[in-house]
Design a protein that fits this description.
single chain; globular; 7-stranded mixed beta sheet; alpha/beta; 7 strands
Length: 253
């Protein structure tokens, strides 16, 4: 359902070409849906997890690469849209990734990026139990101004910013607050991943759903009044060449 929602969002964007690259594409379902249901002529993904790469390639039959984006060296102006869903916070050099994405996007192309929001309301409440912290895997953290500043520095124009996600917001808030109350880091989430026994986190498991419902409402309110939601989703556009030329001409004058 959530992958379908993301694919639908991408398909509704105004794009210079029906081609997409999903960086860190998981098992490939967004790429698959864009190709099969939304008419994208080229739909590719990158995935360094070997099992997910094999599933994308052999089961879904996708154009998939098991290398880091910078190692693939796509031709310039290759894609109408590039997406990164909760991937940018995992890389060591986000500036280099954003520069590479700008290079491979067509003029007028769109970059869609989503990351945990460092300025979220639950980070201030839950501290080290904030699920978005995840120091084992997350290397870089972004607030709204940090992420927008990086994108603008690389030449992108910001079109839309959201701080709410049906997939992540309530779950992230609920786990963060429950962790703070119980003193157990990633208790319920660890149980879902098979890293914790039910005997360790049975209380979190019992009350997770009602807490999730409560914080869902809070997150919907927060989205309407502030920039302190749990995620940052930014839609940014690479300027058209004509606009770039006008700017250069204006600078020369």
């Amino acid at each position: 359902f959530f992958r379908g929602t993301r694919a639908r969002l991408i398909s509704e964007l105004e794009l210079p070409g029906k081609s997409v690259l999903d960086v860190g594409s998981g098992r490939g379902w967004i790429v698959y849906l864009l190709k099969q249901k939304h008419g994208f002529k080229r739909a590719a993904g990158t995935q360094i997890s070997h099992s997910a790469y094999l599933y994308s390639k052999n089961v879904l039959g996708l154009e998939i690469y098991d290398k880091e984006l910078k190692e693939i060296r796509f031709a310039s102006n290759s894609f109408g849209v590039v997406t990164m869903w909760h991937v940018l916070e995992h890389v060591r050099s986000p500036e280099e990734y954003v520069s590479e994405i700008e290079r491979i996007l067509m003029p007028g192309g769109v970059f869609v990026v989503e990351v945990p929001n460092w300025d979220s309301w639950t980070r201030g409440v839950s501290g080290r139990y904030w699920l978005g912290l995840d120091l084992e895997y997350h290397l870089t953290f972004f607030g709204k101004q940090t992420l927008i500043g990086l994108l603008e520095e690389k030449g992108f124009e910001i079109e839309k910013v959201k701080t709410f996600s049906w997939e992540y917001s309530a779950f992230l808030s609920a786990q963060s607050l429950l962790g703070k109350m119980s003193g157990i880091h990633q208790g319920f989430f660890g149980w879902l991943q098979g890293k914790r026994k039910i005997s360790e986190v049975w209380m979190e498991v019992m009350i997770f759903l009602p807490v999730w419902v409560a914080v869902l409402g809070i997150n919907l309110i927060v989205e309407g009044i502030s920039d302190e939601g749990e995620v940052l989703t930014v839609i940014a556009r690479k300027p058209y060449e004509t606009k770039v030329r006008k700017n250069k001409k204006h600078e020369e004058i």
